UniProtKB/TrEMBL annotation:
The family this protein is said to belong to: Belongs to the TRAFAC class TrmE-Era-EngA-EngB-Septin-like GTPase superfamily. Era GTPase family.
GO molecular function: GTP binding; GTPase activity; ribosomal small subunit binding; small ribosomal subunit rRNA binding
Transmembrane segments: none
Source species of the chain: Furfurilactobacillus rossiae DSM 15814
Shown stretch of the complete protein: 9 to 174 of 313
GO cellular component, one term: plasma membrane
Protein name per the record: GTPase Era
Binding site for GTP: 9-16, 56-60, 118-121
Highest taxon above the source species: Bacteria
Amino acid sequence: HSGFVAIVGRPNVGKSTFLNRVIGQKVAIMSNVAQTTRNKIQGIYTTNSEQIVFIDTPGIFKPSSKLDEFMVNSAISTLNEVDAVLFMVNAQETRGAGDNYIIDRLKDIHKPVYLVINKIDQIHPDKLLSVLEQYKDALEWKEVYPISALQGNNVDEFLSQLSKDL
Ligand code: GDP
Ligand code: MG
């Protein structure tokens, strides 16, 4: 199955690293997406039968100026055009205001949201449980995937799950 997926998360959680890992070349399913979203495409995952188009959406943070507000509204309008959202967090960090702001915005969009806990190569497995604990009730997650975007752990498993769901 094919579709569009927006990636959201605080700065430095690993969004670009993830995109670099899954990046492909061909784009076949562009017809039904707005020009604005088309321009934001950052990575395409391609198999023989599927394409997942990823859109990096870094601009969701608490706005403190008119310009901020414009950027945040633009990012949120992208979320309304995709089929699913990937919310990425850093397993090394505790849940903070930046995460909570994004989670609150995600509550309004009524799309499947995947919680992706990145940088698991940097933590002790016991720590993962406490990260899961912090997020498990924050939203009705479609699925939860601990991964390492840098080393590739669990990335293929996540992508094949996503392909099935889309
Ligand atoms: P973005 O701001 O969310 O796009 O984050 P980046 O992809 O730019 O990553 C920020 C930093 O985290 C970079 O130094 C990456 O190399 C590092 N990073 C990203 N993913 C991982 C990971 O899975 N494990 C480790 N150890 N470092 C990572
Ligand atoms: Mg980035």
